[in-house]
Amino acid sequence: MDYILLTISLVLMLAGIAGSLLPALPGPPLSWLGILVFYSIPEVPFNYYVVFISLFLTLVITVLDYTIPAQGTKRFGGSKHGIWGTNIGLVVGIFAPIPFGFIIGPFVGALLGELLFDKKGITHSLKAASGSFLGFLASTFMKFVFTMCFLGYFVYLVISYRSIWF
Questions:
Q1: Which positions are tagged coiled coil (predicted)?
Q2: CB neighbours of 143 closer than 8 A, spacing ≥ 6?
Q3: Are 32 and 55 spatial neighbours (Cβ–Cβ below 8 Å)?
Q4: DSSP 99
Q5: CA angle 80-85-88, nearest 5°?
Q6: Which distant-in-sequence residues (6+ apart) come within 8 Å of 62 by Cβ?
């Protein structure tokens, strides 16, 4: 049973890393579930501090993941229409049947939002859309680093409790 839970925990960690790069999967929550499954192994003492602090951080990272691209649009001079376009483009891009729609969607959404409603010109619209793209890249990098930290902690735990496995 321990090996099954350990394997499930590892799979959740790896799915979390994949989810940090693919917006269709919730990366940080999957990695957190991997830690939770690991602590459900009977021989491993449950660490409430780690579980609840990591849950809090996971929630913060998940909220930031949806707000950073919109803030990037705003920082680069985008209007509320560009921010709405970024958010709509992100959702549409996830489900669009085009390759890398989740990357292209926020950029195109911000660009269309600025072009259609603010009419300040193509240069301004491209600048706001670039902010959206940079925000998307920043949030993806943040999620990737966070899930890699979870994987590092998982490896540390496995090594720490190696007497259980071998």
A1: none
A2: 19, 20, 21, 27, 28, 61, 65
A3: yes
A4: T
A5: 125
A6: 26, 28, 29
3-state SS assignment for residue 90:
helix
pLDDT tens-digit series, residues 120-157:
778 888 888 888 788 888 888 999 999 999 999 999 98
Q: Extract the tokens encoding 31.
A: 């990695």
Helices assigned H by DSSP within the chain: 2-21, 27-39, 48-75, 80-95, 101-113, 122-160, 162-165
Burial of 43 (C-beta count, 10 Å sphere; 0-12/13-18/19+)? exposed
CA distances for 71 relative to 60, 78, 83, 158, angstroms: 15, 9, 8, 38
* pLDDT single digits (tens) 65-122: 888 877 887 788 877 887 788 778 877 887 877 767 777 887 888 888 888 877 777 8
State the pTM of this model: 0.81
Contacts for 10-16 with beta carbons within 8 Å, 24 or more apart?
10/34, 10/154, 12/37, 13/147, 13/150, 13/151, 13/154, 14/151, 16/147, 16/150, 16/151
